[in-house]
Model the fold of this input.
Amino acid sequence: MTDLMVPHEAEVVERISESATIFTLRLRFRDGSRHARYRFVPGQFNMLYLYGVGEVPISVVSDPQDDALFDHTIRAIGRVTRGLSRLQPGDRLGIRGPFGCGWPLEQAQGHDVMIVTGGLGCAPAVSVINYVMRRRQLFGELVIVQGVKHAEDLIWAQRYHRWSRMEHTQVMVAADVGTALWPWHVGPVTELFAQARINASDTVAMMCGPEGMMRVAADHMRALGIVEGSMWLSMERSMHCGVGRCGHCQIGGKFVCKDGPVFNYTQVKDLLPVRGL
Amino acid sequence: MGEPAVMAKKPRVAVHKFSSCDGCQLAFLNLGEDLLRLSSMVELVHFAEAGPVDPDAEVDIAFVEGSISTAAAIERIRSVRSRSRFLVAMGACATAGGLQALRNLADGAAWVADIYAVPAELDLLASSTALAQHVRVDLELWGCPVSGRRVVAAVRALLFGVSPVEEQDKVCLDCKRSQTVCVMVTRGLPCMGPVTRTGCGALCPRFGRDCYSCYGPAENSNVEALGRRLEGVGLSRTAAGRRFLSINSAAPPFTEAGRRRAQDHE
Amino acid sequence: MENGFLCRDRFQDLLEALRSLGYQCIGPQVRDGAILFVALVAAEELPRGVRDIQAPGSYRLERTAGPRFFGWANGPQALKPLVFAPREVLWRAERAEDATIRFIPELPPPLRLAVIGVRACDLAALDLQDRHFLGPPAEDASYAARRASLFLVAVHCSDPSDSCFCASTGDGPRASTGFDLALTELDDGFIVESGSGRGAQLAASLALDAVTGDMRSEAAAQAEAARARQRRRLPSRDLRAALFARLEHPRWALVAERCLACGNCSSVCPTCFCHAGVETPELDGAASVHARVWDSCFTQSHSYIHGITVRSDTRARYRQWFTHKLGSWHEQYGRSGCVGCGRCISWCPVGIDITEEAAAICTGTGHD
Amino acid sequence: MSKPRNITINVPVLARVEGEGALEIHSRGREITALSLRIFEAPRLFEKFLEGRDFGEIPDLVARICGICPVAYQMTAVHAFERLFGLDPGGWVRDMRRALYCGEWMQSHALHIHLLAAPDLLGYDNAIAMAQDHPEIVRRGLVLQALGNDLIRLFGGRSVHPVGVRVGGFHHAPDRSDVAELHVRLTAAVPEAEALLRWTLALKLPETEQRFVSVGLRHPAEYPMNEGRLASSTGLDAGVAEFERHFSEHQVDHSTALYCLFRGKPYLVGPLARVNLNLERLPAAVRAVLDESGIAWPSRNPFHSIIARAAETYYSVLEAARILKDYRVPGAPYVPAVAVAGAAIAATEAPRGTLWHRYDVGEDGCMRRARIVPPTSQNQARIEADLRQSIEALGVDSSDELLRRHCEMVIRSYDPCISCATHFLDLRRHRA
Ligand SMILES: Cc1cc2nc3c(=O)[nH]c(=O)nc-3n(C[C@H](O)[C@H](O)[C@H](O)COP(=O)(O)OP(=O)(O)OC[C@H]3O[C@@H](n4cnc5c(N)ncnc54)[C@H](O)[C@@H]3O)c2cc1C
Ligand code: SF4
Ligand code: SF4
Ligand code: SF4
Done:
């Protein structure tokens, strides 16, 4: 029996700096056979162990079919993530995972896809966008909606520009507070929803971001005609084990780590509006 | 809490002392073999009690013991701050003004007049205050005295280049983890564990007595509910107030909870 | 299966029999003013004639002249610390000069433990912990190892305390499953009953007398009295819908004024399972130990995600504990997380009573 | 003969002493015009805030006067109250207190000998540097220090501000298994402690002979720790309650500590004074080693205090091992105390010397007034007297560097504890 609680040694093969605080670690298990066996779905996460410091849950952002390496895009904000940001190629860390359920990518095939992210950029959503981009012919229209508070909060602006030039792809970005050169919308991101070029009744929506934002977004999407059962969202809670034991990630009866982090909207819609649950 | 910058391979460390009993510095001197190990991992540039004296040295990490209670001390802590990349306030004196902060509560006229009668060079201030009231503090290690385990853990974390963990849960948690029998529930002792920060490993209950909060307030401490309970187990209102006005009397939730009870008495 | 009657002065035989099978016996003893489960060598160490007087926020022992060893309800521990240890080292990482990291899993030491004097509520709670730690995605290795080493000798509860309400949750006072042996204590000795193959084998090795009809009727009367003695109860065995319909009930704020958020209730609760990962590197950095320690939903770090504490105040924390215990356990494990042991009532330093809160919250619409 | 000159020696921070103090020496020609061991650490006004506190709170509060000898403060306080309340906690408590005190002597003495004083004698700046060349010596010191700390932990959970002591006894009796484990370690440390004493006897200590009065407790049967009468090398024999009749404190400008004088004169307390007064109370094993050394006791060389400290360390190891050998868990670790109004007075032997407490207790068991006389304020005048004599002996014309080093060494040999010294300030005296 494999012990899900014990990490496995992995090596940083490449470190990509995405912004001042965001970086991507491209990893490989040291044990070749483990690496070969390793399978995941976008939306799933690993527990990353920084030697002597601790573990944090981080989504896998690379493509599941990319066998050579797997990637984590991480924002350095606290103890562990700041420490992780100092890792360099050749450095080692521990990995447990993958854990949780990923995005419903098979169900979404043949349908329009609307991806809504909020806040400071959202790794789980990036993994879906990458996934769809690489299999463009399998999906219908793709709409990417990103909202930020301040224009400066937007990272990866070039990516949004690049994506917006792709066929059958619509990118809508909004900032509550803009700047002089801000090329996109200023105002609540939800004001843009009506412009989405999708067939609402045939759309699968995937959301990631602050809970309040996702709740409002869901209301707007429902107004567009997207059915609740086709809306998915990725939740975030404190996690210490990743396998539904430590209890930290509970929201109502759900363990975000194993019942999620990706949920169907219907599973959590009653819980989302309650503060402090 | 401050973030440690990447530390030098062998960081320079200073241990400074302000108004205190020296007990927190002993966390280093009592490390035994680990003291020698530590001294090979860091460069101890100022630590008067252990030998090296260079109070003005630029350092990566400064551990500061003691409270600020003279005008000269204010100057000195500012100077220490400006020369230290990561400053750790170590112990109840440095984090909350210490036991000697009880004088902050004394009614102005009496004590302060006495204090001003001392030789001018003493420049004793009317209050004894925590470092954070004067300078930015990157990490607070509470406790009277601070625990050696936590000092070592802080050094270790900084050597790894990450910020040390802050412990702020309540003593009760550690009390139960050590399977200690609650002295409040079984004996009606006026235990401060439910509002006191962990770090000691629930020492007092393990020794069959009530915690007297030498580690200061935990996060989200319901001092009012505990105050009522202390009276419920038989303390007079002033005696319950004194439980808060002790080693960490100047820590905000305690000052209020204690003072209210002291005043009611008058 | 009823096996026979063990005279009181032959109780030591039971301990010896267990020892000869390689078990270390753990049993109730008076320590620091409470009944604790500690290493038990001789029957004399059992708390003869001791009874417990429990009330919200209060636990006292009293000595009586009675002959019974088990005439008390319970102490602050259940079986939880024996299976879900307060601190469990999970693995150790070692870093070599060339920066490679080796992970060495750690398992608890293999100790065969026979626990004497287990209560019905303890067994029900153990079953719940089993569901949590042994269910999918995979068995928890440390828990499984500790769990597999237990031999459980239950004693049907004859003297519930004032805090107990296992009758209301359906978990006691009689133990019905989950034990190897179960004893009914009478003044002269014990009716022995086995609940497993190895229990039956062990019983067979003891010199037991026949159980008389009188004994049986005394046992039945005792069980009935124990049940009847319980005053507290929960409004229903499934409060999930009622609680989740009342997440904004004003009572949450009222209880938060009294609650210390100290985590004592979750620590003594035999079914609470929350834990935190803690890392303890050695000073020289060559190795680091990763352990899990009991945590509580009453701590700030429990719901902390960078920059946000989801449950920042006591109201939200108490509500989480309560709605999980009595509500969302149903969704997770098919039943309430409360077995009616009453520990959270007695060991709460300010005496908050789960049954009283449940009554206050679940009655009315929640909008009063 | 060299020309007279003016010197000013200023050591702003004294290294390797507990707490922060400074040294100032001025001389003109052959005359020392000013010499002060300046204790400028801010007073913490302890006595003041003990007022109004219940007697039960006092042991935990006074411990905070000093992180190095908290046990001494706790011991003195509990004895003071028990004497006033007429409380006899019995033999078990008495023995365990002695074992606990041994722990503090061991840790404090070992700390001083190895980390503070030895570098002077072997020519290093600090013990860490010394450890490079003399690892076994430093390690032996750390082992004895750790053993002392663990002995305190056995009774109080931690070595700094331990939590086990209460008026009437202890909060908790240690488990037999824990005591047994420590007893094994104590027994194993006996040869180490003996070797330590021999090592100090072999050190090249400066030769000097000074006239001073030794003061300490004397007990009819044992080496003094918790109990005894006040004694001096000049024949004083008084109960501790008479302390204020023979000893008086006064304030000097350069110090936040008070100077305590014995009949108007400086005097010495501490290990050397204790050995001088109580040599015959040391067990034969310790005396034998001291006798071999050829030192004529009582000693008049203040530098012999390191030897006295080592002798007491050796003694503490033997004594603690003796006490813990047949340890039994008592029925109750304490006797409940009921307050009686009056003056609670006691003195015990802290590692650094006699520590005297007086509390005026009200009907309600709360403090009306408190007065504490720690060893360092008693030794302060003696240290300054020694410094004068030493400088004169060395020659005022010696180099500044030599004078400075020597003076620092003199001060350190007394192991002054500035934290203890500055716990208070007698406010009334300043109003004048
Ligand atoms: C399913 C999931 C996927 C995630 N994916 C990504 C990702 O791809 N990229 C990314 O940058 N971030 C991701 N996060 C967030 C990331 O886990 C936190 O930013 C990280 O835990 C912060 O840890 P820290 O030690 O740096 O911060 P600190 O604020 O110092 O946190 C202290 C401790 O709190 C705990 N903690 C804090 N935040 C969280 C959290 N969100 N979840 C669990 N424990 C927490 C950890 O024990 C952590 O060590 C994800 C979170 C979840 C739950
Ligand atoms: S003894 Fe004190 S710290 Fe321990 S559980 Fe009880 S109240 Fe909390
Ligand atoms: S239990 Fe309380 S008083 Fe005792 S050591 Fe711990 S924090 Fe200090
Ligand atoms: S919630 Fe309370 S009564 Fe119920 S099982 Fe837990 S501790 Fe016992």
